[in-house]
Write the structure tokens for this entry.
Amino acid sequence: MWSVRRDQPRTAGAQVSPLVADGLVYIGCRDHNVYALDAGTGKMHWRYTTESTVDSSPALQGGTVWIGSDDHKVYALQAKTGEWIWEFLTGDGVVSTPLVADGILYVGSYDAKLYALDADTGRPRWEYPTGNGIRSSPTFADGVVYVGSRDSSLYAVDAVSGNERWHFETDGSIDDSSPLVADGLVYVGSLDHRVYAVSASDGASS
């Protein structure tokens, strides 16, 4: 067992979920850094510095780590070395955890948009505007991307075209709750004190 402490103020701590793969622990911190730590010892394997706090959790697939930062960017980094691959600039901070499916990276931003980017190059495929910032992390199932927005709505967006399939309105902001799809239903929490289960195919609640 181990713990790692950085000589930084308390405000520079980590408040996101780590990701563990191939003997390394990947985590973003409010000291502007993304870290890869040895899972057995906690020794730093590499560090990549962004331009602001990192309140996004990482995603990993095929040797690449993707993560968002409050500097308005999404980063793609080499999982083994931390070397920069590409970055994409959104209109505001990115705290949403990226999702990779079928070669496409999906991520939300505080600029109120859900983005679809080529996972290898960062080139935009499409963007979908909501009515407020997105902190929620997207979920993918059967060709559809589901994400919540601070405009109080849950959205289902076609993964290829970026066209809206449907949206479902709650009575409060969908903030840090991320949708879960199971058995034909989408589950999500809202700041209206409710948890919702709606049809994945059309958003119907009954």
